[in-house]
From TrEMBL:
Transmembrane segments: none annotated. Coiled coil: none annotated. The lineage of its organism: Bacteria, Bacillati, Actinomycetota, Actinomycetes, Streptosporangiales. It comes from Nonomuraea jabiensis. Residues 1-11 have a biased composition (Polar residues). This is Isopenicillin-N N-acyltransferase-like protein.
Amino acid sequence: MTFPTFTSTQIDPRARGKELGTHRSKAIRANLSGYSDLFTVAGATATQVRAWGEAALERTAEWAPHLAEEIAGIAGGAGLEPWQVAVVNARTEILAAIDATGEGECSTSVVLPGAGEAPRTVQTWDWHDHLRDAPMLWELEPRPGHVVRTFTEAGALAKIGVNTGGLGIHFNILRHDSDTADLGVPVHLIARRILDEATTVAEAADIARSATVSASTVITAVTSSDAASIEISPAGVAVIPPEPDGVLQHCNHFLDPALAKDERHSTDRPSTYVRFQHLRANIEGLSSDDHTKRALAMLSHGPDDAPVCAHPDQTMPINQRWETVATIALDLVGARLRVHQGGPCQVTEATWQTF
C-alpha cells in the first residue's frame, strides 16, 4: 500500500493552491470533516473552530502572505472557504486551544555518522486512526530550481520533507504550559517556509524564531553535515544540537532545560520518556545506512515495551485512538522521502515508497 502523490506544475502560490485543491478536492474535504469530528469530540464548537481558522489565516497573511494566498487557492479549487483550509493547517493550534490530551505521537532519530557519509534518519508518524487516509506526498517548486517534497495531510501545506537545497525536516508535536487559545502562526506553515527557504540548520532556526506561535512543536532540521531539533513554543525557541557522537533523537517532550520546566507531556503523555529511552537503547540499529534496518530498530509495542509502534484501541473515542500511520526516512543526497504506510512492525524491503 502507498500514499497518493501529487506534483504541482504551478509556481504562483494561488495558482499552485488551486491546482492542488482541484485535484485533491475529495481528500481535502474528507480531511476537514475528520478534523471537525475530532474537534467536536474534544470539546470545541463549530463557532470556535471557525474563529480559530479565521485567526490562523490572519496570522499567516501577516507572517507569510504568499502562504495565505496558497491556502486561498486550495480553498477555491476544493470548493471551500479559506478559513476551512486554514483549520486543517492549524489543527495543532486548535487542539492546543481545546487543551486536548491523549497518549500517543511520534518518535524521531537522526544520526550523523561523519564526514562523507549521509545522515541516517527515521521517524514514526502517529495520528488518530480515523484520519489515516489524510496523508499524501506532494512535490512543488516554490521558486524555479528549488524543489520541495513533503509528506503532509490533504490541504496542509507541509509536514515532514526534503528540499533540493540539501535540507530535510522531521516533525513531532510538543505541549507546553504557554500554549494558548490566542491563535498564532500554524507550526505546519513554519515547516513549509523552512522547506521553501532554508538550506542550513541555522536558516531553519531563524525562520522558526520569526513566527509568533500559540502551540508547541519540534522541527528537527538535517543537512549532510549538521542537525538540530528546533523546539518551538509560545515561551520561546530552543535549538538542541546532536550529542558528541552525532546522535540526535526526539519524542514528545522538551529537551531544552528552560522550556522543559513547563513541559505538559510529562503528565499528558508520559510514554514519550519511555519511547525516548528505547531510541537511546537502539542507537546501533538506528545508525545503519539501511533505512529498513533503521525502521526495525524503532520497533517496540506497548504496554509491555515502549509504544513506538502504535495500534489503536477501538474501545476508545476517536480523540483517544492512536495509530502509527507512517514510518519515514529522509534521503538528503537524493532529495527524496522513503515512506512506509504503517508502523515499523509491518516494514519490509518491499514496502517502501520512494518519492
